[in-house]
């Protein structure tokens, strides 16, 4: 089925990825994890996203996450699993998602038929996701589907988010962008994380970011001011196009009408969450 150009990409960026990502910036997440004895912010982040894989070590997570510094990951994994088992972490993450969505969206929205409709649409899209070569998606696909509509929506968003993300890693390899080059070139688009957040959340030093920028300049992807060249813009767009192709099946399965409705409903909930302060103001941009 032919979808409108970029419709699936728009839905993912506007309605899917940010809805899932609310838990990583929510005060409810460290609160729930503190109850397990996990208090370091980096350990919370790493455990929350990797728990579906089981009690894995740093090597597995560095591979699956792609753009984290390995020794940064190794400071917390696998040691975090001595504090709490992956099953406990997953339960805490779901409790955090529950509290986060209720706080950001309000009880009326959480109990609304529109949210239930969005959950049904998103779950329908996941029916066409594929497991092969998609480690994070496949691990999450083994988890039980929550009954509450707002948690079903969050679960479906998680599946769709990781499905596209796993495909994106393949596209990055084809594009020849290493972890740092991927991050720095994304920041140069104005849509990626700021250097402040890259260092805090991924473990890189400024010297690492500077060296990656030098490599990108040598390849003609960045100019002397750190902006994307025309070639750089083409590389980033080709990267997204390849990712779109690898991630097309769920949205084609949903169909144009269903996709438009999911984007409308999910995007509305995301805007409501953002207005309630779901994300830091300095998260994205070039500075």
From TrEMBL:
It holds the Pfam family HTH_67. InterPro entries: HTH_67. It comes from the Bacteria. This is SalK.
């Amino acid at each position: 089925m032919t979808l409108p150009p970029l419709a699936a990409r728009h839905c993912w960026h506007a309605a899917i990825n940010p809805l899932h990502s609310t838990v990583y910036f929510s005060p409810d997440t460290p609160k729930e994890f503190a109850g397990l004895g996990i208090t370091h912010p980096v350990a919370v982040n790493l455990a929350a996203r990797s728990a579906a894989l089981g009690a894995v070590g740093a090597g597995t997570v560095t591979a699956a996450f792609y753009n984290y510094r390995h020794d940064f990951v190794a400071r917390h994994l696998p040691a975090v699993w001595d504090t709490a088992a992956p099953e406990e972490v997953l339960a805490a993450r779901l409790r955090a998602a529950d509290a986060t969505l209720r706080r950001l969206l309000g009880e009326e929205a959480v109990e609304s038929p529109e949210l239930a409709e969005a959950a049904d649409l998103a779950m329908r899209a996941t029916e066409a996701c594929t497991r092969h070569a998609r480690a994070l998606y496949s691990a999450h696909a083994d988890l039980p589907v929550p009954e509450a509509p707002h948690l079903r929506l969050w679960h479906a968003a998680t599946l769709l988010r990781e499905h596209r993300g796993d495909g994106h890693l393949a596209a990055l390899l084809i594009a020849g962008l290493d972890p740092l080059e991927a991050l720095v070139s994304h920041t140069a688009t104005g849509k990626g994380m700021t250097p402040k957040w890259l260092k805090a959340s991924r473990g890189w030093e400024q010297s690492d970011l500077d060296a990656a920028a030098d490599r990108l300049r040598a390849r003609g992807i960045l100019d002397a001011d750190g902006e994307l060249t025309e070639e750089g813009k083409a590389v980033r767009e080709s990267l997204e196009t390849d990712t779109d192709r690898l991630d097309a099946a769920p949205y084609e399965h949903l169909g144009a009408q269903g996709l438009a409705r999911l984007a409308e409903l999910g995007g509305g909930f995301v805007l409501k969450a953002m207005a309630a302060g779901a994300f830091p103001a300095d998260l994205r941009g070039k500075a």
